[in-house]
Input
Amino acid sequence: ADRRGLKLGEPRCPPPPRGRAQAAPRGRTGAPLWQLVDFLPAVETVQRAGLEAALQAAGLLDAWVMPDGNMVGTNGMPLPQDSQWLVRSPRAQSLAAWLAPAIADTSGAPVPEDVVKRLLAGVACTPQDDGVAETWVCPDGRFRLGALAGAWHKPGAEYIGHAARADARARRLESIAERLGALALALSTLQQADAQRARDQLQATTE
Output
């Protein structure tokens, strides 16, 4: 089923953490962050992996972004069991120096570039955390959300940027093909063993 979806071009979404809606909210405009941004050309491969890992571990990678940057549902009420990026005070050194708005490939209404830029500008991104910013991430995979801090590592970016998603899709298809080949070989071995067992049983019955 995974291979079929990949061949049909279905996007692979980051696995949602506990407490997060399992599917894109219906009837809501906007898109998750990873569909709205791309890395700037100067960002190196290892830094892309680290930033995506930090955002994913912090729960920011697939946080929903509304066109106006606010957190409300279609009825104007706060959304339960979901997470969303909100516009915060801009930082001198922020994610805006590493990520840029990209065209959203969702069915919902696009998010204006200025909103995405303001969201990125509100997250500090520096080699060391000065403890002043509300939210901080580092290109080596470290992050902090208020009093919560942590770190994560990924071999490469998978979701931010069309090129990263295409590479991840190709790697996943290759992995699936290898796994299906191993399963086919194991099945053939079992079938041969079962055929031999049947021959042995027939010989035993004859004897």
